């Protein structure tokens, strides 16, 4: 052992012999613990956790292997030497707390201190007071331990272990018998004293509640350590108390963490699923309600690929047979050597969000239909009045009436977009597909927007890469709207003296047409990019897009591209403009949703 370790567990194995045969219940366990380090040994019931704890504290002996504490192999010590180590160097909080029922809390802690200091030696009162204060039980000092709740008794047992000022404390079943608030408070006490005193802590738990304070987590299954998670796994959110569902799988796909939120969302209990292959416990379906193939599951792909993260949307079946829609974020997990050894998945229930979104859309569609007729009437009346009074109105009156008509037209366009969104989402939008000449469509757009760009003092350039363009199947009006929305936005959000460049080309290898619109405007933040195509999302005031700041134009643009089985993306950095690119297949049949 090197002096940097408080505990060095070396190839510890334990064999249980029966009249018929022998079986290894612990096999080749290896790990080390440094001063101030907190280790969690996790696993389901009967995995060997408590037996390993008794061996590490000297209460039982391993069949083979070494337990090195304070430079001594406690597996080889004489009983007297072992008692000395246990009294002065090791703190032990066992599952069964074992108190002398006639002693008060203070007397219980004082007895442990006297054993550690040696019989006949005077125990400093502040030594006991400090141990009681650390565990928050000063107010209970005069109470009998037998009169206390289990939660307070557990703190007394911890105080009894701490008063000895041990190098290492072993806590078996660390949060067993505690509710959520009691668990959180107990773990906070452990975390605080470990950090301040550099006392090492080894805990066991059938649940992974204690991951929130652990530096490393070992998963024990059938007497074998199956996985070690680096502390980053805890820091990134494997605590059971985070606000989203989370589960972790090892490189064989076995569940090693299933947090409380995941239990709530899906109904499975962590002790029941630990050690099982995740997609034998959980069933997945696509958004179109088709089963997800094993090889396309993000957890499987992240293990064998080079991606740093994968995101997907899937229906997952709960323990009660209900299918719920989740947004999944999957990242690789790494072992001590930096090798990929599993995945961590966070899941967020979005079914409720979809229902709220649907209610918004329904309300907007109803309002739009109600506004449609009055706006048409107002616009017609204005046109009639302007025609009747032509030549008789003052310049000021004409300006006011013209502004009114312009705003009515804008409202009409907004109403039409709200109605179109409703049709798109309900599948009532039908594409009128024809064969389109893409260069001709782009030239028409150039002709339409060149005067607008000139008026805004923006240089507008359309550039074609390559000459041979096949026909593109699509709805001409819909695709013209896609181009118009992107070109108009680019011009409107480019400062005077800036430029907008539209480049279109054909990729024969992928059989698709690509169009990119780049401007030299202020650019977009990362947050804006993330939500740019989200309905009703409002960008910052200086960079708000069309549709009277309601965030509908780009949402419709993406929907129209999606209807053509295409893809659209946006790239930008603040201060460096933005580039919108979309791709359209040329041979794929286009159908309405």
How would you describe this structure to a colleague?
The chain has 593 residues and is α+β, with helices and mostly antiparallel strands. The chain folds into 4 domains: 7-221, P-loop containing nucleotide triphosphate hydrolases (Rossmann fold); 231-349, PAS domain (Beta-Lactamase, 2-Layer Sandwich), CATH 3.30.450.20; 354-426, Helix Hairpins, CATH 1.10.287; 433-585, Heat Shock Protein 90. It is 37% helix and 25% strand. The protein has 17 helices and 23 strands. The chain has a 6-stranded mixed β-sheet with strand order 6-7-8-3-9-10, sandwiched between helices. A hairpin with a 5-residue loop joins strand 22 (567-572) and strand 23 (578-585). The longest helix is centred in the middle third of the chain and has 38 residues, at 351-388. It is elongated. GO terms for molecular function: ATP binding; ATP hydrolysis activity; phosphorelay sensor kinase activity. It comes from Candidatus Wirthbacteria bacterium CG2_30_54_11. It is an enzyme of class 2 (transferase). Residues 366-588 form the Histidine kinase domain. Keywords: Kinase, Phosphoprotein, Transferase, Two-component regulatory system.
Q: What would the keywords be for this entry?
A:
Rossmann fold, elongated, six-stranded mixed β-sheet, six-stranded antiparallel β-sheet, alpha+beta, Helix Hairpins, 4 domains, Beta-Lactamase, 25% strand, 17 helices, 593 residues
**How many strand units?**
23
Main pleated sheet:
6 strands, mixed
The whole-angstrom Rg is 34 Å
Strand content: 25-35%
Quickly count the domains.
4
CATH-defined superfamily of the largest domain: P-loop containing nucleotide triphosphate hydrolases
- CATH fold-level topology of the largest domain: Rossmann fold
Shape: elongated
Helix content: 25-40%
The separation of the N and C termini measures 67 Å
In DSSP terms (H or I, runs of 4 or more residues), the helix count works out at 17
Query: What order do the strands of the largest sheet run in, or round the barrel if closed?
Result: 6-7-8-3-9-10
Which structural class best describes the helix and strand composition? Answer: alpha+beta
What integer is the average pLDDT? 82
Contiguous uncertain segments of 5+ residues: 230-241, 541-550, 588-593
Q: What is the class of the largest domain in the CATH system?
A: Alpha Beta
Q: What's the architecture of the largest domain in CATH terms?
A: 3-Layer(aba) Sandwich
The quaternary state of the protein chains shown equals single chain
């Amino acid at each position: 052992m090197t002096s940097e370790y408080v505990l060095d567990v070396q190839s510890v194995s334990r064999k249980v012999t029966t009249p018929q045969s022998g079986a290894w219940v612990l096999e080749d366990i290896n790990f080390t613990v440094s001063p101030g380090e907190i280790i969690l040994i996790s696993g389901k019931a009967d995995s060997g956790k408590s037996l390993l704890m008794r061996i590490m504290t000297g209460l039982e002996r391993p069949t083979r292997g070494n337990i090195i504490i304070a430079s001594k192999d406690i597996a080889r010590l004489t009983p007297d030497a072992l008692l000395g180590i246990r009294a002065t160097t090791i703190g032990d909080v066992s599952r069964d707390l074992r108190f002398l029922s006639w002693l008060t809390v203070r007397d219980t802690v004082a007895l442990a201190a006297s054993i550690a200091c040696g019989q006949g030696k005077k125990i400093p009162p502040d030594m006991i007071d400090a141990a009681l204060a650390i565990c928050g039980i000063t107010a209970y000092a005069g109470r009998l331990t037998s009169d206390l709740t289990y939660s307070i008794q557990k703190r007394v047992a911890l105080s009894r272990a701490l008063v000895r000022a041990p190098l290492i404390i072993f806590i078996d079943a660390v949060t067993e018998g505690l509710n959520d608030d009691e668990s959180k408070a107990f773990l906070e006490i452990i975390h605080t004293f470990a950090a301040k005193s550099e006392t090492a802590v080894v805990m066991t738990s059938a649940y992974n509640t204690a991951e929130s304070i652990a530096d490393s987590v070992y998963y024990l299954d059938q007497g074998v350590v199956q996985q070690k998670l680096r502390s980053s796994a805890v820091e990134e959110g494997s605590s059971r108390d985070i606000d989203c569902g989370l589960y972790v799988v090892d490189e064989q796909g076995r569940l090693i963490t299933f947090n409380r939120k995941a239990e709530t969302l899906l109904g499975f209990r962590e002790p029941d699923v630990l050690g099982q292959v995740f997609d034998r416990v959980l069933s997945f379906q696509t958004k179109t309600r088709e089963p997800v193939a094993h090889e396309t599951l993000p957890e499987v792909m992240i293990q064998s690929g080079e991606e740093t993260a994968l995101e997907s949307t899937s229906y997952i079946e709960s323990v009660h047979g209900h299918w719920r829609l989740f947004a999944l974020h999957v990242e690789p997990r790494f072992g001590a050597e930096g090798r990929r050894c599993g995945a961590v998945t966070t899941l967020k229930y979005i079914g409720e969000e979809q229902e709220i979104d649907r209610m918004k859309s329904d309300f907007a569609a109803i309002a739009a239909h109600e506004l449609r007729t009055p706006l048409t009437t107002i616009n017609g009346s204005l046109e009639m009045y302007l025609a009747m009074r032509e030549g008789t109105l003052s310049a000021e009156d004409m300006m006011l009436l013209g502004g009114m008509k312009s705003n009515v037209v804008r409202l009409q366009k907004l109403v039409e977009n709200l109605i179109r969104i409703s049709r798109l989402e309900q599948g009532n939008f039908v594409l009128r597909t024809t064969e389109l000449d893409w260069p001709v469509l782009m030239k028409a757009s150039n002709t339409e927007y060149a005067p607008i760009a000139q008026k805004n003092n923006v240089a507008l350039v359309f550039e074609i890469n390559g000459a041979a363009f096949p026909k593109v199947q699509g709805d001409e009006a819909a695709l013209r709207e896609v181009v118009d929305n992107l070109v108009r936005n680019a011009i409107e959000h480019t400062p005077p003296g800036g430029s907008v460049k539209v480049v279109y080309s054909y990729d024969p290898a992928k059989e698709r047409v690509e169009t990119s619109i780049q401007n030299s405007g202020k650019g977009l933040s990362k947050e804006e990019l993330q939500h740019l195509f989200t309905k009703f999302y409002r960008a910052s005031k200086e960079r708000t897009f069309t549709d009277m700041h309601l965030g509908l134009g780009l949402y419709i643009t993406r929907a129209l591209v999606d209807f053509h089985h295409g893809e659209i993306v946006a790239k930008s950095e603040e201060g460096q403009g933005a580039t919108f690119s979309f791709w359209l297949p040329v041979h794929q049949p286009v159908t309405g949703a």
